[in-house]
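Deviations from the work plan: none for this task. Representative record:
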Amino acid sequence: MKRGKTTPMTVITDGLLLFFALTGVVFSVLTAYGLKADHRALLLGCGILSLSWLTILSLPKFKLPFTLAALGLWGWGMWKLWEPLLLGEASVWCGVVNTAARKIPAITAIEPIAQLPAEVWPLCTTLWLLMVAVGYALALAFLLIWVRRALPVFLLTLLPILPAVCVTEAPHPIPMAGLVVVWMTLFLTSLAEARDPAGAARLRLPAFLGAWVCLFALFALSGLETAPGPHQPDWAAQARADAYNAANRLDLSAILTRFDFLGWKGSGSTQYVSLTGGGAARTGRTALEVQTTSYGKHYLRGYSADVYTGTRWEPLPRTGRRELEDILKGSGFSPLLTLGKQTKYAARYTPVYSSSYFSFRVPVTGQENPGETMTVKNVSAPGGCAYYPYALESVPEGAALGGDSHLARQGQTWEHTYTFQSQWEDINFFYQAGLFPEDDGIPEESLAAQDAYRDFVYGHYLQVPEDTRQALLDWVGTNLEGLRSPEDYAKVMKWFRRVWEEGDTVYGGIASDWIQEEVTPEEVDAVRTQYTFTLCDTITWLLADKTRYNMDTPAPPAGEDYVNWFLNESKEGYCMHYATAGTLLLRAMGVPARYVSGYVVDVPRSGFAVVPDSAAHAWVEVYYDNVGWYPVDFTPGFQGDGTGSLTSSEFTGDGEPVSTAAPAPSAAVTQAPTPPAAPSAAPSQPPKTAAEAPGAADSLPLWPLALLALAAGALLGRYGLLRRRKRKLTQPDTNAAVLWAYRCHQWLLSWGAPENEALTALAGKARFSQHTLTEDERQAALDLLAEALRQTQTALPPWKKPLFRLWWGKNTL
Amino acid sequence: MLRRWLAYVLSLVGAVAFRVFYTGWLSGLILPVVACLPLLGLLLALPGVLFCRLTLSAPERVERGAAAAWTVTGKSRLGLPLGKVWVKVETVNTLTGQTVRKRVSFFLPGSGQTADVPAPTEHCGLLGSRIVSAWACDCLGLFRLPLFRGKEAQLWVMPLSQAADLPPLPQEEHPGLRPRPGGGPGEDYDPRAYRPGDPLNSIHWKLSAKRDDLVVRETLETVYPLPLLTLDCFGSPEVLDRRLDVLSGTGKALLKQGRPHTIAWAEPVSGELRRFDIAGEADLKRCLEALLSQRAPLAGKSILDTHRLGRSIHLTGGGEA
């Protein structure tokens, strides 16, 4: 390899880039894998190495002897420091494996076997990194100074941090920025680098400075957050969700689950729920493993979704999330733990199981439910959320609150143990405003946050697109007389009370004069809980009565409102349809509600259950004042409680479930929120082929695949054609070969080739002569054909030449 | 450039995919960096482009058919390399009117570079050449930036020397007589009728008396007539080439013999007479340059039709009457 003329500027810029690249790689490795080392020693070592190799490779003579001497010195050092180097290697590998283990559950975290003082490990790591950096710096210097190609340098510098990047662990921003600047500089000067090193050196300096300026500007303008954790704009999160949903339909889950660090895990819960592509694929793989002291049916909650767009469920927009953060910040109040706390409080009082408006406040001293425990192990469930039962008493170790929507799974924790109240399901019957002591040690900030959150809930969880709202009201018709709003319900109840007190008897429903009643806001608040319960009951009955459960319901046509299509057109659906319709109907009637996805598990008496991904499910949460979010399942066949109630085809996939009018779910409760994710959320619906699913073609058209297949077929056909032609022309039978040459020439005539008498004569001889043509005559025919090909191609207009080459090939002869 | 664009688009798609599927902050850095790279490449290439000058040069003259080339020289005063440079050179043959455009691309390092563009020397004429367009690519090779174009250059394509088989030329021993401009004394004269303005002392009184009309003596001088070569300056380029070859060869042959001569032709459009007395190589060169630098259409006025020059040798170049 010949190197261009070396100028002082070349040497300076080579050294600059070498130093930044080496330092960037070393410190990126250090920070990406969480290694502890002596930073000052590493920085100094990188500087010395860069300078040494730069000097040696820039020498006009004796490069090889000096390089060999340096490598010999390096080998001697390795021999002398072998023991500490082995320790350093162990430390580094532990860092690498543990980094992967944080993201990939199949990998277990490891620790070095050697029991050494804590301060020894960083020294060994530093030593190992420096020794490895000697060889690495030589390779880097060779590529930078001699080869002068951007791509090899880019690949060489990317390689050490690639494993960390693959498990979404990014290095520290400063070394990474240095590395990115080196990449930018190299690519910007790549055109001149190999041909004019001296000129490229003059270009490198402004490119290097420009790259830094550009990077600083990007950081400043985009407000890029470099803290660990997910940072994705809405568009990227949506695109990811769409991609995973599309992959769902292709049933690529078996492949994608191998890359679970990307957020994919099959059916389960996600922040974004696409409603247009059908349900997630169900493979039957184990998603969760549950061990609990409370048997029976449990709803294991993942994400809740808040905003309905007509084609998808989304989390709250950024402004809403910030508003929520402001409310919850430092208050100690969590909407996800309220249900558990109130259930625990309720246990102090005599439970009154009644749906009547009146309940009694009868304290029972010393009766406090100690709660149940449940251990949930995430085997292959998707998303970064923890799946937890309702009525949590506290946030478990290894999880964190994710606003009011989910519990975020932390680090490499894949198994969480929850403490929860199992008797939460009757809390809505039991509770009414003022029942529980308000001064039960709850800090004022927490009470203020609770009030603020209530306002937040009524501000954000009643939203329904106007068109959808009208469609819902039209669908409801006269079925919800007196239940159209809490105010209506308060009026009806007041009318009932008045009629009762007046001694009249009501037969055949309510009279229309209830609407004349006057109610105060306090009276409305007093009946809000009962109104919500009654409304849920009625909506459950309505949905079961007017629609049919069907696991194979196709996706709605493009552009159709999902819930409108379900209620008025298809009139059949599965859990996503029922949960969506239920949520929106509740919202339209003035009850805050949201869409939730997760798993439903029926724990046997043994207390252990394996949850397949086919147990993924969607349901609704309604908001009760002071109780918090309470689950309601509108899917027919899911309203039963207790062990063995889950007979729905949603899980078994065979037959239609028995629809019952009974409301509300059962089993243990708790609440919590969490962070990101991406793929489809809802369960149900077996995977369909593109032809079976009407909506599939809208989001994943088949024509690119068809085009690709066509192109591949055409290429194969061309290859076969050219090969056949060549075989015919070189076949042992010279007469046949010459005749083939003649035939080829005849085809050439259509491209505008002139007649060739010599070839025609040879072909005539081959056809009619008694003699076999000689090899020379065959070669002459081939030469004539080749010449005709060349002439024809030369005479063709430019746009025809590629077609000609495509058809006739380059080396046909 | 197409390959570079393809590579960049792939990189951009990769960065977008990285942003979509990778939730860490790194993807938030890589995507804008990849998106900004073309802008940075443009800005970085601008100084080099602004301070780059292209010049065009060529040898002064070549014989028809000889290899010749325009030399495009590019150099950035800042010493910055420009990567690939595309130059389109247009050449116009003044005599035949033929226009040829040729494109050349070359790598322009910081120290400067030259590139040759073949000149069309198959026909005689004065070739004028200019850089029609010149572009340099940016640092990433994605965009083309215009470069300043240098001045025009010219190249004489001279005819080959092909001597013609000439008929016998007028010999010096048979000089002729012609009226001497301004008159004056002389031994030889011719009587002619008086014309107003003739001096009185030129009147041949005796003869006037005999004829009863004024007759003057017009003094004659001895002249040695020059061979007159004529040609038509129109026709196809091939015909013109042959004529010019013959003209050049004949002129040189006559000069070699020490025979001054005259070359004349008529402007093909206006019919105006162009006449050059050739006494040496310099005169012949001047005459040929005048011929080569004028426009010669396919058809025009012949000198034989427009002027009566007496005895002359009309050069056709062969292949025509």
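The first strand of chain B starts at residue 52 and ends at 57.
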